[in-house]
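pasting for the record
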Amino acid sequence: MLKYRNLIIYTVTIVGFSVLMYFVIQKGVLLQAAHAVKAPATNSSSWADFQETMLHNVSYPLAILLLQIISIIIIARIFGYLFKKIRQPSVIGEIIAGIVLGPSILGAFWPDVSAFLFPVKSLGNLQFLSQIGLILFMFVVGMELDLKVLKNKAKDAVVISHASIIIPFALGVALSYFVYTRFAPQGINFLSFALFIGIAMSITAFPVLARIVQERGLSKTKLGAIAITCAAADDITAWCILATVIAVVKAGSIISAFYTILMALVYVIFMIRIVQPFLKRYGAKYSDKESLSKPVVAIFLITMLLSAYATEVIGIHALFGAFMAGVIMPANVNFRNIFIEKLEDVSLVLLLPLFFVFTGLRTQIGLLNEPYLWKVCFLIIAVAVAGKFLGSALAARFIGQSWRESLSIGALMNTRGLMELVVLNIGYDLGVLSPEIFAMLVLMALVTTFMTGPALDLINKFLPEKKTLTPEEILTEAGKYKILVSFSSPQKGVSLLKLANSLIRKNTDQAGVTMLHLSPSTELNQYNQEEYERESFEPIESEAKKLNLPVTTMFKPSLQIESEITQTANIGHFDLLLIGFGSSVFEGTILGKILGFTTKFINPERLYDTITGREKLFEHSGFDERIKNIVKASKIPVGIYIDKQKTRFKRVIVPVSSISDHFLLIYAQKLNRNNQSSITVMDVSGVIRQNPEFRGTIFAMEEDAAGQVILHDEGSLINRPLMDQQDLILISYDYWKKAVEEQQEWLTCIPSALIIKP
């Protein structure tokens, strides 16, 4: 009876309460007459009612907002990805995505779609949500500023940063004199218009500049340090000037704005003298993920929101308050890193693209429909580049920098990006900028940001600097057998290090191992970069110490990880590149070997090769696009390691299918001599038997290894019992691809594998 107790209770509960509801509903129907409830129309069809309901649901404000967010994020990510592929900051792609979704493209070519997706009455909701995203983003930007760097390098940077503001600001004010009559909105005085044009010319996008410095490996160079410091000082100075400009615009004159500026100064002093010490104590107490609980996070977020509210009420915009709150956050590196990680994904991935699209909805490039208007647009771009690029470069040269460094600083400081859009939207909201001048300035922001990468490339081409991607001592070690190990995670790095050690363990005085870790630069900021580098190499260095193996470590943020790996391998005079082969979700099956590792979309370059007949689109090799691109671009042998948690490599099997597999014996011999591995050579196609030279090499190995090398002659089959006895299979790249394409059954039971492309 006990076994049926739960069933009886469940049945009684469901049936009993269902009967009770039915009884109440039947009694309730009798009450309708007293309330004169109108009976539903019988002449309308159920399908028509359903359609009307669906139409109402689709056009409901929340449904429209959700559809807008989905569309914006998808389009922004696509454009961001495409621009990363051409070595441009993803922010440019996201800005262009906003313009594409606005009246300039979508509204011009598909007006019905634009009207449905972005109805005028829905733009208010989109604007406020994008403002929340901007507030969070400016808070993160403030936290990413390292004030210690500003204090230490202020003497080097103050001249450059202030010159990069005052020169373009002055040129912007001069430019406004010539365009005020034609482009200033009705009722806006010249002072307000001139100040906003000046600030639009003088802004620098600190976040975008920091990403470019990281991507190009300049973070730890003198040039990178100066550029970051100048941009940080520029940001703080420009935002203070912007706050003053906003106060003047709202008040109408400098004298009228005096009280607003005075209140802003009181606010800044209050934040620095009272709020910052309070937050510093909290930051010291809660500086790790375990102690940084939700109530503590709430305190800091409330501080940010109160700061933004205060500056909005004072009259200098909520974004300045969010930025200031980020600047005064506790300087503890761990605290800032944790907090940035909590907010950055939400602000950058979810909310910030809304701001780009909202800006795009305001940008009407179609208004520039006359040659004269395009001439003015080009003039604005020329003034912006001349003021920022040349102003920064000449100031850097004046304080003693070389021409190469001076021009590079100028190119970096000319980056405007997102910060420019923030300023322009503030000016548009205040009515200072007309739609025409707004569109021109948005185009200027795009052009000046887009040109940063090509400008740096041209400077490097005509004023090259002698540099390498590998440590200098590696390049000068002639005669050494050098292995480059590229790893994606510390765990995989440790496994690859053990394999590399097995190849050179008894010959470390004539061999060397370099451990390379590249990280997507979009995932790093200047606060977590050093910590991330330390955490990435800590297990590697610990394992190397256990193995008594000296290693060289290399770390670099990069957007082009595959090309960085191959470039490092090619110019570093390495003898072998070792990379990891990701774990398969179908591990242990043929399907896993074919599909389990292929998780990425088809690479556009590979699609082109397919169309032109140079490559098959679906090549069942089990390798993802990352591995294929590395193998294709490397000029040195590449070893692809499948880790099955076999770390001793004492029993190694080497299948030979063609005469070209002769090179495998070199690596087999290294494992035998350095790791005392027993080697089983499988002549799976009879090629060894037919080639006396090949056979002679193996006999020589047998004599040298004292019975640790065994040759299985023609007709040998690779089977499960044999595989179960092995620690490692050493196989050529070509034979691996053939085995996967033919779905050979032994693939389902392989041990760890080292697949080598000579």
